[in-house]
Amino acid sequence: MTDEDRREVAERLRERPVARNIKEAYVSIVQAVGVRQCLLSHEGESGDRFDAAAYADALDHLADLIDPVCHNQHSRASDGCFCCSECLFLYEPTDWFAYRNSFLYCPRCGARVVDDE
Asked: What pLDDT is attached to residue 89?
């Protein structure tokens, strides 16, 4: 999920879709955030039945809006190299100082770097 995606969601939420009751309010929020597509994206899913995989996708989508994360997928990560799993930003250190400083956030997309462990 990119910063542009987050800005688009924020813009849709600020438009304040019309809702006349709680159910419509819930549906409006779900649509504005983009979770409805996750819930309906699974084959054979009508939106009326519970689908655990769709539910997990929706939660991941919301989590990415709030706290985007990435992983260092560089094969030489232990040498201070970094490759963002989300935007593919590539960094290879050129000096000892850079080698000693690992990334907490991707410099390009801003995602928080998490360990796979």
From this structure: 93
Structure tokens at 34: 């983009």
Q: Which two tokens stand for residue 65?
A: 């809006």
pLDDT at position 113, please? 92
Q: What is the pTM of this model?
A: 0.61
Same domain, 58 and 24: yes
What are 90's strand-pairing partners?
83
81 and 61 in a common domain? no
Structure tokens at 96: 């000892």
Long-range contacts formed by 6-9: CB under 8 A, 24+ apart: 6/65, 9/33, 9/34, 9/65
pLDDT computed for residue 117 by the predictor: 56
Are residues 10 and 57 part of one domain? yes
Average pLDDT of every residue of the chain: 78
Q: Are residues 82 and 96 in the same domain?
A: yes
